[in-house]
């Protein structure tokens, strides 16, 4: 019977079992780098849209970043190209209350708002509150009308009639109540559509004033000043 062989069994060469050294790795070409970057961007976008691969907190943060970036981009575009926005900015400057960039900020809001004005901080654009660029344009003009009223007329925001007048003017002059916006909200009245929209939206805003005790009080304040404030189109010559 043959004896077992004394020679060691053959082994696979070290070149095929060891990882490649740094010298063996070929640098990616410019095209490959672009493709890799594009793939990574696509993966991030997909994760932001679907939430796949992200914790709930990370997903929320990614969405907020995307919303803010979009808001800031459209804000810059509208400041440069929107006739209504530029008109209001020019008139605010003439009135002695110029609107600087740091007074026109994008930020998150609750789902019921698209913007707001504070006489202490300026205008907030709700980065998660716009369904279109036109919606954002109307919101910017709306809040600029409030800023103009505060500057020129000295609005007392705790006085419901003062507040009502500015809300009537802002809704009437900003484009908030144009036909397409009303159709989107589900209102189809053909007679005095604009006036009814302005009145309805003014009441909703005044009702949210901490000094307003009830919806009835808001309606009373709006009705008391409606005609005079609706017909006051300053600084516009007519409804925008």
UniProtKB/TrEMBL annotation:
Subcellular location: Mitochondrion inner membrane
UniProt GO molecular function: metal ion binding; metalloendopeptidase activity
Membrane topology summary: Peripheral membrane protein
Record EC number: 3.4.24.-
Superkingdom in the source lineage: Eukaryota
Compositional bias (Low complexity): 1-22
GO BP, one annotated term: mitochondrial protein processing
GO cellular component, as recorded: mitochondrial inner membrane
Main location: mitochondrion
Keyword Membrane: yes
InterPro entries (alphabetical): Peptidase_M76_ATP23 (IPR019165)
Keywords: Hydrolase, Membrane, Metal-binding, Metalloprotease, Mitochondrion, Mitochondrion inner membrane, Protease
Pfam hit, one: Peptidase_M76
Residue segments, region Disordered: 1-36
Family designation: Belongs to the peptidase M76 family.
Purpose: Has a dual role in the assembly of mitochondrial ATPase.
Protein name: Mitochondrial inner membrane protease ATP23
């Amino acid at each position: 019977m043959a004896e077992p062989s004394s020679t060691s069994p053959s082994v696979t060469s070290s070149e095929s079992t060891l990882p490649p050294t740094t010298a063996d790795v070929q640098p990616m070409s410019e095209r490959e780098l672009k493709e890799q970057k594009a793939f990574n961007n696509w993966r991030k976008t997909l994760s932001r849209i679907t939430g796949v691969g992200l914790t709930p907190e990370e997903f929320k943060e990614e969405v907020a970043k995307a919303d803010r970036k979009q808001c800031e981009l459209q804000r810059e575009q509208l400041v440069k190209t929107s006739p209504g926005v530029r008109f209001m900015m020019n008139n605010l400057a003439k009135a002695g209350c110029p609107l600087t960039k740091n007074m026109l900020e994008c930020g998150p809001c609750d789902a019921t708002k698209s913007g707001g004005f504070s006489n202490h901080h300026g205008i907030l654009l709700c980065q998660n509150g716009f369904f279109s660029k036109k919606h954002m344009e109307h919101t910017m003009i709306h809040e600029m009308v409030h800023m103009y009223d505060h500057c020129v007329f000295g609005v007392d925001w705790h006085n419901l009639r003062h507040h009502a007048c500015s809300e009537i003017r802002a809704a009437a002059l900003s484009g908030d109540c144009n036909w397409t916006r009303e159709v989107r909200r589900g209102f189809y009245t053909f007679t005095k559509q604009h006036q009814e929209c302005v009145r309805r939206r003014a009441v909703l805003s005044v009702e949210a004033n901490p000094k307003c005790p009830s919806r009835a009080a808001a309606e009373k304040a709006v009705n008391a000043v409606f005609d005079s404030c609706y017909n006051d189109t300053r600084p516009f010559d007519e409804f925008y």
